[in-house]
Specification:
By secondary structure, this protein is mainly beta. The chain has a single domain, classed as Porin, CATH 2.40.160.10. It has three helices and 18 strands. Strands 1-3-4-6-7-8-9-10-11-12-13-14-15-16-17-18 form a 16-stranded antiparallel barrel.
Length: 364
């Protein structure tokens, strides 16, 4: 009996060792550095700033990604990615940003789809950056600016972004479906992690469809928790002249599409946000955007416009913002490009502002 038991144990250990040997894993270091120079001013800013800046077309980042083949079509993946400011060497997008604010997650992927745990994308991110010609430019894309970037000094904004809860969510579970003939969907749930309060949370979903020259997308979210760290205002800390800090619940839906005519790619989006505040007053935003990307001379001509109308008892008088960007992005190689962009930005309560920048971007 002892001999039988010992033989079985050796057999099990041999199987485990064989499985470990067969499992394949890889870890890669990836990143992007984007540096621009020029004069930048958004409507509502006190003045223009001539400077070298990081992240003109894409926020600079550095990270580690890995995957292990577990067998049977199952894979384990991880991502740890930090934003950085290439003009100064500082970490994060801004002071107080978390170390791995871009990605900090583990994922199991298989024929069933993908399940991710940790810090990851908000449901608004992919539809926003895919369906505008300037991509994920947080400095120069009109749609991204209106969605995520406020104007004016911190806690004294002349304009607050319309999307609550940041472009990434912490403490999040995401389920991503397999690809069904070009259609995929992602379901997001962020725990509020408040003791004795299971009702405060962020939930959302998005859908993406790609079929030849046509692409379509939509998202919905309800946001009650701030990011990257909870406990602060979900939109902005400003209390006057508009009390954005009092907003404690937001519901947003978005639809967008693009069509590639080969000679030019056309973009269009529409979104509607409804905000509730602690005082019971509401704030509503309606945003549409249009864009064109046209290949020319080894690069792309970029043209984009976004318009937001803000109404509601919290805002008082109606507020409006329109932003137009025109640029050219030239590919030096598959990984390196140079760009120049002229942007005009106008809030109806402030003067029109103009920005002109040129930059260099490298992916590795």
């Amino acid at each position: 009996m002892k001999l039988q038991t010992k033989s079985m144990a050796l057999a099990v250990l041999s199987c485990l060792a064989a499985g470990s040997a067969m499992a394949q894993s890889s870890v890669t270091v990836q990143g992007l550095v984007d540096v621009s120079v020029g004069s930048v001013k958004y409507s509502g800013d006190s003045g223009s700033t001539a400077a070298v800046n990081s992240g003109g077309m894409t926020t600079s980042w550095l990270g580690f990604k890995g995957v292990e083949d577990l067998g049977g079509g199952l894979k384990a993946e991880f991502a740890l990615t930090s934003f950085l400011q290439a003009d100064t060497g500082a970490g994060g997008r801004f002071g107080g940003d978390t170390l791995f604010s871009r990605d900090a997650n583990l994922t199991l992927a298989g024929s069933f789809g993908r399940v991710s745990l940790g810090r990851n994308l908000a449901p608004s991110f992919l539809p926003t950056v895919i369906f505008n010609p300037f991509g994920d430019s947080f400095n120069l894309s009109p749609l991204v600016l209106h969605t995520y970037v406020p104007s004016g000094n911190y806690a004294a904004r002349t304009w607050a972004n319309f999307a609550a809860g940041d472009s990434g969510w912490s403490n999040e579970v995401i389920y991503s479906t397999p690809d069904f003939g070009g259609l995929t969907a992602n379901f997001h749930y962020q725990f509020g992690e408040k003791a004795g309060d299971t009702g405060t949370k962020n939930v959302g979903m998005n859908a993406l469809y790609f079929n030849g020259p046509l692409a379509l997308s939509a998202y919905y979210h309800q946001v009650q928790v701030s990011n990257p760290l909870g406990g602060s205002a979900i939109v902005d800390a400003t209390t006057a002249p508009v009390n954005f800090a009092s907003i404690n619940n937001q519901k947003t839906y978005f639809v967008g599409g693009s069509y590639d005519l080969t000679a030019a790619k056309l973009y269009a989006t529409y979104s509607s946000s409804k905000d509730d505040s602690t005082s019971g007053k509401s704030l509503d935003d309606k945003t549409y955007s249009l864009g064109v990307k046209a290949p020319a001379g080894g690069g792309d001509i970029l043209l984009a416009f976004a318009n937001t109308k803000r109404t509601g008892t919290l805002a008082g008088a109606d507020l409006k913002r329109d932003t137009l960007s025109v640029g050219y992005d030239y590919n030096l190689s598959k990984r390196t490009d140079v760009y120049t962009v002229l942007m005009s930005d106008k809030i109806n309560t402030a003067d029109r502002a103009t920005s002109l920048v040129a930059g260099l971007r490298h992916k590795f």
